[in-house]
Amino acid sequence: MSTHKISIKPSQKLCPEIHSQKPDDLTILKLISKAKFTVFLAHSEEEDNYYAMKIFPINRKDSINPLYLCEKSTAGLKHKNIIVPRYTEDRMNIRSLDGFKFQASVTYMEYAPYGTLYDLIKVKKVVLNDLLVRTFFH
Questions:
Q1: Are 30 and 2 in contact (CB under 8 A)?
Q2: CA 12, CA 22: separation in Å to the nearest integer?
Q3: Contacts with 38 (C-beta within 8 Å, 6 or more apart), sequence order
Q4: Cα 13 to Cα 57: distance, rounded to the nearest angstrom
């Protein structure tokens, strides 16, 4: 498995209400999803933790994507059933493996290895009974 190192600059903006300092040793391990926004699995040896790294390209008018701003605004939420960004970067210079350079906003979220509630219902077709509903929405 090939891995790709990314450099993290200390001046980049974080979500201070969640974590004061993002690990500087994040390694991109693999592509998780290439839907509307690309998501990578990233790992920090320092924290021994995995993150879902979501890329929001900055548009041609040099403005930050409103969906990124919406997702970033959830960073202050705290609930055991809600995954929120642990770190955010408003602008990050990215260079793809084929040499293409672009700017993007990035969120780093807790990695849910077993999928989401959406995956459970729509993809795996699990029928939610009362016990499961109470478990998820307690």
A1: no
A2: 10
A3: 31, 54, 55
A4: 17
Q: Is 4 helix (H, G, I), strand (E, B) or coil?
A: strand
pTM for the model stands at 0.69
Residues 6+ positions from 72 with CB-CB distance below 8 Å:
15, 85, 88, 90, 105, 107
- The DSSP secondary structure of 49-71, one letter per residue, reads EEEEEEEEE--TT----HHHHHH
Nearest of 41, 57, 50, 60 to residue 93 by alpha carbon:
57
Task: Give the pLDDT confidence of 79-129 residue by residue, as tens digits.
Answer: 776 788 888 999 988 887 788 888 999 999 988 877 777 777 788 787 878
H/E stretch holding 99 reads: none
As a whole number of angstroms, the distance between CA 82 and CA 110 comes to: 10
Q: Which residues, including other chains, have CB under 8 Å from residue 88's CB and lie 6 or more apart?
A: 13, 14, 15, 68, 72, 75, 105, 106, 107, 108
Q: What is the DSSP letter of 75?
A: G
- For the record, the structure tokens of 34 come out as 């290439």
